[in-house]
């Protein structure tokens, strides 16, 4: 069912469009966070690989797989953006909420599950990890909170698609 929702005389996104805007943002956010992590911490700073519990060669291969995953998420998110834009259903505020949820969720998962639970790698080695871990996870939590706020603000009449369409085509 793809019926339109009208509140206070204003058309807002249908439920499937809301979900597609959110999913697109989440995919893009996960991919963007993965790209930044891979580029900055793996390639430029050489602090770690995606998988550090083996040889350097295995670490490089794991980085390549991780990098590909990030790009696939970005591309999938952008395909959804193109489709939403073509349908004139792009809802930028909701999409940005999804980006923050995706990036924050990815970073918190990385900082807790991959770093601590599974021990695949640490942010850095041979240093006191506490400041790095706190910074990593607090930034992730802040992105998640900001994403939740944006998504909640776009649940109702605050996220009117017709107004955003007019702005986008102006």
Task: Write a structural description.
- Helix content is 70%, strand content 4%.
- With 170 residues, the protein is mainly alpha-helical.
- The chain has a two-stranded antiparallel sheet.
- Helix 1 (15-44) runs antiparallel to helix 2 (56-86) and helix 3 runs antiparallel to helix 4.
- The model is unreliable at 1-7 (pLDDT under 50).
Counting DSSP E segments of at least 2 residues, the number of strands comes to: 2
User: How would you classify the helix and strand content by structural class?
Assistant: mainly alpha
Approximate shape: globular
Summarize the amount of helix as a percent range: over 70%
How much beta, percentage-wise? under 5%
Distance between the termini: 30 Å
Count of helices?
A: 5
Q: Describe the strand arrangement of the main beta sheet, using strand numbers.
A: 1-2
- What can be said about the biggest beta sheet? 2 strands, antiparallel
Q: What radius of gyration results from the CA coordinates?
A: 19 Å
Task: Detail the poorly predicted runs.
Answer: 1-7
């Amino acid at each position: 069912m793809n019926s339109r929702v009208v509140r206070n005389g204003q058309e807002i996104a249908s439920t499937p469009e809301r979900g597609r805007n959110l999913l697109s943002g989440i995919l893009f956010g996960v991919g963007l966070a993965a790209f930044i992590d891979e580029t900055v911490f793996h390639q430029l700073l050489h602090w770690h690989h995606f998988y550090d519990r083996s040889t350097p060669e295995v670490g490089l291969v794991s980085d390549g797989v991780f990098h590909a995953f990030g790009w696939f998420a970005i591309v999938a998110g952008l395909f959804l953006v193109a489709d939403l834009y073509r349908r004139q259903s792009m809802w930028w505020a909701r999409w940005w909420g999804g980006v923050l949820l995706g990036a924050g969720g990815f970073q918190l998962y990385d900082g807790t599950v991959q770093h601590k639970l599974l021990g695949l790698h640490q942010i850095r080695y041979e240093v006191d990890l506490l400041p790095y871990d706190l910074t990593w996870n607090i930034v992730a939590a802040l992105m998640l909170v900001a994403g939740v706020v944006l998504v909640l603000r776009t649940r109702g009449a605050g996220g009117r698609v017709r107004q955003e369409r007019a702005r986008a085509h102006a």
